[in-house]
Design a protein that fits this description.
The protein has about 625 residues and is α+β, with helices and mostly antiparallel strands. Helix content is about 30%, strand content about 20%.
Length: about 625
């Protein structure tokens, strides 16, 4: 037994338990999220005597005399500050991690009202975010600190017209923890359900012994495939996923459900033991093994899900005629989505049908698959999506929704079915690994032929219809022209847009230029380039654009003894700090070549009110 305070209220806890379970299950302080129950994610962060602590770690018996604060215990002003700061910084997406972030922020700002960016980052080192990332959350913490120092919160933006910056409409409920995820739902008479999972990747189920579990006081029911009133198979594209593996059938992976158990409490549910007899069979470890002629069948219909052949033109002929051919194999691993909110669903009887409260990425898919499993029409299977604590494509399939619906339908009671973090990683589908082999054939193009090809490809992309091969390839090729290291117009070893936006160290911003810029002052190099294009003589010139000329440092736009001219586009404000002017324009007529330099344009208002125009100076550098 222990006595302590929660949000200023004295409480006495008779039975020792994790603080997380007491806060959520007894006090229903659902801002304290359960993302892992093992101290890894930080979604359950609270303050214990002012120190940010993960509530899934301490036992209540160790908290005698302690002071616990959750988001619900913040003052109204604190809630307003964090709501405004996290909203205006764009720090909220799925919202599942945000209450924990807020409590870590409070732990920092209560002791350091004017933290550095590094201090704010350190404060949330134990809090994981899978959606927003950390830049905007750190921005929000620093903005909150500023608002606390000022002692007031600005009014929320009132202009919601197109193009205006406004916070998400659900910011407040996600910051204050009042938004409802399925695990935050507690209904009168609610029971708890879970599945007994296969012990082997591939094995025949010989018998399911439910007697001991059924005899345990508090167990409401144990259900097998025989209890399913409709179809056992579910699945979006192909119905190949068993709701439960029936006796005599073969498991497909360790996550397969063998039976469902429902009990009055999670504690009783954990005690319910179901013994399953198996005949272990050789497993199939990879798609390559599944492709072998004598491979065991993963599914009764075979190991090939689908075969699609897509061809445009005659690739074999094109490869055969190519001057250069590159063939390479690529592999990508499977990827765990690692959303912070484990899968959870609550279902309850709704007339002679069911209502499912779910956190998934396809309410209609959940409805359709549950309809088939229960053998019910659409009007008797209703699905209401609650907030989703991250998905990334990993919550498109049913995992707990149909199990909750089945238990509710059979017991006529509300039920919650939730996966642990370990179960979630084991059970839900991943981003699939891929094995790919590509052969690329190409011609050898350089000089004028290469630039002519680039020009033709860009024009074809522009004028072709959306979705055509020419348009798709052209867009890829334009990306290469813009950012490819060997592009004829890139001119740099790398592009540092990412570094300039996200890294403070300016040494990472450098974009070393390619060798062209070391040689374009050499007239012989310019002559060689001109000759490639069939141009020779004293009046032939290379014109370069989009290259800032540092005029304020004395750099000249005339290079290579007059063979090369640089006109940098004129009016790009981003360059004016570097160049000192607003660029150059080349004017050519039958009399001469003329370079005109421009001063920066001060704006339309000055042009109209003060009759100011673009100040320019002109110089003739070659007469014809």
């Amino acid at each position: 037994m222990a006595k302590f305070t929660v949000n200023g209220r004295a409480v006495t806890v008779e039975n020792n338990q994790k603080l997380l379970r007491y806060l959520r299950d007894t006090l229903h302080l659902t801002s304290v999220k359960d993302g892992c129950s093992e101290g890894a994610c930080g979604t359950c962060t609270v303050l214990i005597d002012g120190k940010p602590t993960k509530a899934c770690i301490p036992q209540t018996d160790k908290l005698e005399g302690k002071s616990i604060v959750t988001v619900e215990g913040l003052t109204d002003f604190e809630k307003q500050v964090y709501t405004y700061a996290f909203g205006m910084a764009g720090a909220v997406q799925c919202g599942f991690c945000i209450p924990g972030m807020v409590m870590s922020a409070k732990g920092l700002l209560d002791t350091n009202p004017d933290p550095s960016r590094e201090a704010a980052a350190f404060a949330i080192r134990n809090n994981i975010c899978r959606c927003t990332g950390y830049v905007k959350i750190i921005d929000a913490i620093l903005l909150a600190a500023e608002l606390f120092r000022k002692g007031e919160v600005p009014p929320a933006p009132a202009d919601w017209s197109l193009g205006q910056r406004v916070p998400r409409v659900d910011v407040e409920e996600k910051v204050t923890g009042t938004g409802i995820y399925p695990d935050d739902i507690y209904l009168d008479g609610m029971i708890y359900g879970s599945a007994v999972r296969s012990q082997y990747p591939r094995a025949r189920v010989l018998a399911i012994h439910t007697e001991e579990a059924r005899a345990l006081p508090g167990v409401v029911g144990v259900f097998t495939a025989e209890d399913i009133p409709g179809q056992n198979k579910v699945g979006h594209l192909v119905k190949d996923w068993d709701t439960m593996i029936a006796v005599g059938d073969i498991t497909h992976y360790l996550g397969d459900a063998i039976c469902l158990v429902a009990a009055e409490t999670p504690e009783i549910l954990a005690q319910a033991l179901v013994k399953v007899d198996y005949e272990e069979l050789p497993m199939v470890r990879s798609p390559r093994e599944a492709m072998l002629p004598d491979a065991p069948l993963v599914h009764r219909t075979g190991n090939l899900l689908t075969h699609k052949h897509i061809q445009r033109g005659n690739p074999a002929e094109a490869i055969a005629k190519s001057k250069h051919v590159l063939t390479q194999h690529f592999s990508t691993p499977w990827t765990e989505h690692a959303f912070l909110e484990p899968e959870c669903a609550v279902a309850y009887p709704d007339g002679d049908g069911v209502m499912i409260l779910s956190t998934d990425q396809g309410a209609y898919d959940t409805q359709h698959e549950t309809m088939g499993m229960l053998g019910l029409p659409a009007e008797k299977v209703k699905v209401r999506n609650c907030l989703v604590g991250g998905g990334f494509g990993g919550k498109e399939d049913v995992t707990v929704q149909h199990h909750a619906a089945l238990i509710a339908y059979l017991t006529k009671r509300p039920v919650k079915v939730k996966l642990t973090r370990a179960e979630s990683i084991l059970i839900h589908p991943k981003r699939h690994p891929m094995e790919m082999e590509f052969s690329i054939g190409c011609e050898a193009l350089s000089g004028k032929a290469f630039l002519d090809y680039a020009d033709l490809t860009a024009r074809r992309a522009y004028y072709s219809k959306q979705g055509t091969a020419e348009r798709e390839f052209g867009m890829d090729f334009l990306w290469f022209l813009w950012a490819g290291r060997n592009s004829p117009i890139f001119g740099r070893e790398r592009m540092t847009t990412f570094e300039r936006r996200l890294i403070l160290d300016e040494s990472t911003w450098t974009e070393p230029k390619n060798p062209y810029y070391r040689f374009y002052n050499d007239p012989s190099v310019c002559d060689a380039l001109l000759k490639e294009f069939g141009l020779e003589g004293e009046h032939c010139h290379i014109i370069n654009g989009h290259i800032p000329v540092k005029s304020k440092k004395g750099e000249s736009p005339i290079k290579g003894g007059g063979k090369l001219l640089v006109i940098d586009g004129g009016f790009c404000k981003a360059y004016q700090k570097t160049t000192g002017i607003a660029g150059y324009t080349l004017i050519y007529n039958s009399a001469c070549f003329r370079l005109v330099s421009h001063e920066p344009f001060s704006g339309r208002a000055n042009a109209i009110r003060e009759n100011q125009d673009i100040a320019s100076s002109s110089a003739v550098f070659e007469r014809l």
